[in-house]
């Protein structure tokens, strides 16, 4: 029985990873199409019908190109960091709230925070090991930004932990059967979405990849396979953050088609923001995290903890 359960868990995990990677491929296509129409042009439309095989063409191109690395780089961390980055972006999907089988464990919220905190090290390693001033500056910016917004993410998540009195992601879904949390906590919803943009280094918080001043940020020295792995990790994180947003605020059963419609809409919102907003100023980014989001998140946390004490 143990071998059967173990093999079922492994096969389920592999299927989940494959589905996430296919989702990542088509999210890149969606982004290029949406950005094309935002800029009043067509997106990729030459490869196959409506450009649908374009993501696979991109993957084949990137992984068959020659892998180069700077002579003065620190080779081992330079080589490992993109692999570790994608590994973290995929392993965090273990908390996907399956009602039966797979990995349903009681500390899913803590596991999510642990995995996102580890993501900082991959960016830092990639920026430092490249031995390039641009890469190092991009890495330092990304680390400062990610650590700052992790604080607000953790506090917002803790507010909902007090609300549902559990770290299990399944309980967040059960707790919203009558009323979605977005109705109760609209300010937290907006703050969470902005923090997700900052956490995944997306516009208007893409300081780690500031093309106008840092060429391409921490991944400037990466080409072919290494660049593709960093790219895939970023988009897997976007899909995961969209999924977590839906579970926290727009509670839905994962066996319901509306769950996936909401998830795709949230991923579209990430792209929409990229096509609409200019980049923030760096000091404004830090001011937003520490002077605006932190006090509001703390106030909500105290409010929910007070409510918890009153109901006990």
TrEMBL record:
- Determine the domain of life of the protein's source: Eukaryota
Q: Which GO terms describe its biological process?
A: aerobic respiration
Query: What coarse category fits the chief subcellular location reported for this protein?
Result: mitochondrion
Query: What is the annotated localization of this protein?
Result: Mitochondrion inner membrane
Annotated InterPro entries: NADH_UbQ_OxRdtase_su1/FPO, NADH_UbQ_OxRdtase_su1_CS
Nucleotidyltransferase keyword on record: no
Annotated catalysed reactions: a ubiquinone + NADH + 5 H(+)(in) = a ubiquinol + NAD(+) + 4 H(+)(out)
In alphabetical order, the GO MF annotations are: NADH dehydrogenase (ubiquinone) activity; NADH dehydrogenase activity
Q: Does the keyword Transmembrane helix apply?
A: yes
Q: Where are the transmembrane segments?
A: 7-30, 78-100, 107-129, 149-170, 177-195, 227-250, 257-273, 293-311
In the bilayer, the protein is annotated as:
Multi-pass membrane protein
Name the Pfam families for this protein.
Answer: NADHdh
**Which keywords does this Swiss-Prot/TrEMBL entry list?**
Membrane, Mitochondrion, Mitochondrion inner membrane, NAD, Transmembrane, Transmembrane helix, Transport, Ubiquinone
List the protein's name.
NADH-ubiquinone oxidoreductase chain 1
* Biological source species: Serratella sp. Liaoning-2019
């Amino acid at each position: 029985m143990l071998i059967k359960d173990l093999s079922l868990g492994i096969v389920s995990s592999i299927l989940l990873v494959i589905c996430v990677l296919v989702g990542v491929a088509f999210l890149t296509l969606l982004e290029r199409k949406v950005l094309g129409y935002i800029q009043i042009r067509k997106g990729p439309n030459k490869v196959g019908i409506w450009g649908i095989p374009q993501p696979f063409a991109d993957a084949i191109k990137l992984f068959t190109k020659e892998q180069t690395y700077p002579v003065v780089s620190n080779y081992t961390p330079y080589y490992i960091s993109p692999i570790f980055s994608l590994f973290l972006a995929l392993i965090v999907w273990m908390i996907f709230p399956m009602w039966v089988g797979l990995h349903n464990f009681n500390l899913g919220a803590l596991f999510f925070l642990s995995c996102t905190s580890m993501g900082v090290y991959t960016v830092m390693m990639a920026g430092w090991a490249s031995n390039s001033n641009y890469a190092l500056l991009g890495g330092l910016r990304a680390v400062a930004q990610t650590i700052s917004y992790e604080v607000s993410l953790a506090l917002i998540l803790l507010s909902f932990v007090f609300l549902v009195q559990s770290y299990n992601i399944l309980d967040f879904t059960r707790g919203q059967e009558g009323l979605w949390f977005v109705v109760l906590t609209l300010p937290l919803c907006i703050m969470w979405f902005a923090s997700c943009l900052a956490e995944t280094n997306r516009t208007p918080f893409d300081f780690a990849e500031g093309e106008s001043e840092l060429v391409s940020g921490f991944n400037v020295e990466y080409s072919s396979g290494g660049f593709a792995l960093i790219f895939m990790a970023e988009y897997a994180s976007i899909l995961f953050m969209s999924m977590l947003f839906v579970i926290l605020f727009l509670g839905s059963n994962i066996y319901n088609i509306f769950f996936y419609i909401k998830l795709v809409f949230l991923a579209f919102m990430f792209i929409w923001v990229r096509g609409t907003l200019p980049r923030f100023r760096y000091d404004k980014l830090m001011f937003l995290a520490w002077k605006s989001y932190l006090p509001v998140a703390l106030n909500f946390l105290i409010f929910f903890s007070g409510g918890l004490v009153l109901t006990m």
